[in-house]
C-alpha cells in the first residue's frame, strides 16, 4: 500500500535492501469475501473500499505506531463457509492478525467459531475478526465472543428503526416479508414480525417467505405473489444479485409502494433500478451520503471516485472499521498483541466523518451509531451511485439506534 514517488539512488537502494523487513512490518488485514461468482461485484467493491480507507486514513498519514502501514489482502471465499475457513487458515499462515468479512452471516458464523477455536489453541498467533456487514443478531448474542467485533448494526436494530417508520405510515395496512433462506434472512423475518406486532398490531403480514440464496434466476413468481397479495409495503434483507433481481421484478410487475431494504444501493444495483426505483426503494444504513454530513466525507467520496470511477462509497462502515482499528492499535501501543487491541476497541467512541459517533458496546462488541432511512432518487443527490445520476437521500434519522437494545451475550475474556 505504498505511495509511488521519485527517490534518490541512495534512498532507492536502501529501500530495496530493506524491502523485506519493511514489508514484514506491514499490518496485514485479510479481506475474506466473494471476488468471483454471482456476488463478485459486491465483494470487489468492498475490497476497493477497504484498500482506499487503509491508504487514505492510515498510510497517507504515516501509518500507526512507528510507521507501520496497513496492507489489505483479498481472499476469495466464493460466498462459501467451507472455502472461507480454508482462506482463513491461509491468511493466518501468512501472518495475518486481522480478518474483515461482511457478505453472508452464514460465513460470519463459521468464521467467528473458527477464530475462537484457533485463538484458544494458538495464543501466539491470535487473530481478531472485524465484521463489517454480517448482521445476524446471534453473532453479538448467544454466539458472541471476545474476538468478534461488528461495525454494522445488527438485523434487529435495523428492523426496529425501519418499523418505526412503517408504523408511522397510516396508509400501510398489509406487509409482505421476503428474504434469502439462511440465518440472516430468517433473522430479518422474525424481527419484522415481532416489531410490527408490537408497534402496529393492525398491520397484517400477508406473506412471509424465504428463497434460495444466490440461485434464483427469475423472481417473477415471487413478484406476482407479492402483487397479488395486495400488499402496501415490502420488507427484504436481500443483498447483491438477489436484491437486484427481486426488486426489479417486483417493480416491473406493477408494485408502486415502498420496498424497505437493507442493501439496495451501489455495486450496480442503483443504476439498474434507475427511474423505476425512484420513490419506491428505501434503504436503512449507518452512513449518510446525501446531503454530505461533513466536508471530510465529501472530500473522501470525491477522492474515491477519482481513483475508482466506476465504484461507490456505499458502505461507510468500512472506513469506520479501518479508522477504529488504527485508533485501537495506537491506543494499545501494539499491533501484534490482539488482546490489547481488542481491549482498546471495547467501549471506544469514534468520531466518524459520516456525521455520527460510533460507540463499540463493550458487553457484546456491537457498534452503536445513527441509522438513516433513505430513498432512491435523482433529486437532491450530491453523490450518485454507479454514475447513474441516482443515489439515496436521507429522509429520517434514528440517533444512536439500539443503544439500549438487549443482548444475551455472556462473553468470556482471555
TrEMBL record:
The record places domain Leucine-binding protein at: 27-374
| Signal peptide, first to last residue | 1-24
Q: The organism sits in which domain of life?
A: Bacteria
Q: Which Pfam families match?
A: Peripla_BP_6
Q: Does the keyword Isomerase apply?
A: no
What keyword terms does UniProt attach to this protein?
A: Amino-acid transport, Signal, Transport
Which PANTHER family does the UniProt entry name for this protein? Answer: LEUCINE-SPECIFIC-BINDING PROTEIN, PERIPLASMIC BINDING PROTEIN OF ABC TRANSPORTER FOR NATURAL AMINO ACIDS
Family named by the database record: Belongs to the leucine-binding protein family.
Protein name per the record: Branched-chain amino acid ABC transporter substrate-binding protein
Amino acid at each position: 500500500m505504498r505511495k509511488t514517488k521519485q527517490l534518490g539512488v541512495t534512498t532507492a537502494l536502501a529501500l530495496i535492501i530493506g524491502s523485506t523487513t519493511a514489508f514484514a512490518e506491514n499490518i496485514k488485514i485479510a479481506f475474506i469475501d466473494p471476488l468471483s461468482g454471482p456476488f463478485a461485484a459486491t465483494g470487489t467493491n468492498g475490497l476497493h473500499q477497504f484498500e482506499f480507507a487503509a491508504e487514505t486514513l492510515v498510510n497517507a498519514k504515516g501509518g500507526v505506531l512507528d510507521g507501520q502501514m496497513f496492507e489489505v489482502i483479498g481472499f476469495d471465499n466464493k460466498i462459501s463457509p467451507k472455502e472461507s475457513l480454508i482462506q482463513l487458515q491461509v491468511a493466518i499462515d501468512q501472518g495475518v492478525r486481522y480478518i474483515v468479512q461482511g457478505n453472508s452471516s452464514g460465513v460470519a458464523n463459521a468464521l467467528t467459531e473458527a477464530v475462537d477455536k484457533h485463538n484458544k489453541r494458538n495464543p501466539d498467533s491470535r487473530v481478531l475478526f472485524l465484521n463489517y456487514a454480517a448482521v445476524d443478531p446471534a453473532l453479538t448474542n448467544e454466539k458472541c465472543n471476545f474476538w468478534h467485533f461488528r461495525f454494522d448494526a445488527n438485523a434487529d436494530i435495523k428492523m426496529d428503526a425501519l418499523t418505526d417508520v412503517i408504523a408511522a405510515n397510516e396508509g400501510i395496512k398489509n406487509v409482505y416479508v421476503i428474504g434469502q433462506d439462511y440465518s440472516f434472512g430468517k433473522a430479518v423475518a422474525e424481527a419484522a414480525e415481532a416489531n410490527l406486532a408490537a408497534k402496529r398490531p393492525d398491520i397484517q403480514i400477508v406473506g412471509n417467505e424465504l428463497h434460495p440464496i444466490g440461485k434464483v434466476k427469475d423472481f417473477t413468481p415471487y413478484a406476482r405473489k407479492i402483487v397479488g397479495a395486495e400488499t402496501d409495503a415490502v420488507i427484504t434483507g436481500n443483498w447483491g444479485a438477489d436484491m437486484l433481481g427481486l426488486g426489479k421484478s417486483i417493480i416491473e410487475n406493477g408494485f408502486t409502494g415502498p420496498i424497505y431494504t437493507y442493501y439496495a444501493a451501489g455495486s450496480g444495483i442503483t443504476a439498474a433500478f434507475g427511474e423505476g426505483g425512484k420513490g419506491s426503494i428505501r434503504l436503512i444504513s449507518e452512513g449518510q451520503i446525501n446531503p454530505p454530513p461533513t466536508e471530510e466525507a465529501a472530500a473522501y467520496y470525491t477522492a474515491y471516485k477519482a481513483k475508482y470511477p466506476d465504484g461507490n462509497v456505499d458502505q461507510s462502515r468500512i472506513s469506520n472499521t479501518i479508522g477504529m482499528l488504527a485508533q485501537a492499535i495506537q491506543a494499545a501501543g501494539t499491533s501484534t498483541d490482539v488482546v490489547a487491541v481488542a481491549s482498546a476497541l471495547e467501549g471506544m467512541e469514534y468520531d466518524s466523518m459520516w456525521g455520527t459517533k460510533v460507540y463499540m458496546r463493550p458487553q457484546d462488541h456491537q457498534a452503536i451509531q445513527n441509522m438513516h432511512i433513505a430513498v432512491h432518487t435523482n433529486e437532491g443527490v450530491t453523490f450518485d451511485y454507479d454514475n447513474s445520476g441516482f443515489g439515496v437521500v436521507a429522509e429520517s434519522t434514528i440517533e444512536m439506534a439500539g443503544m439500549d437494545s438487549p443482548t444475551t451475550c455472556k462473553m468470556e475474556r482471555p
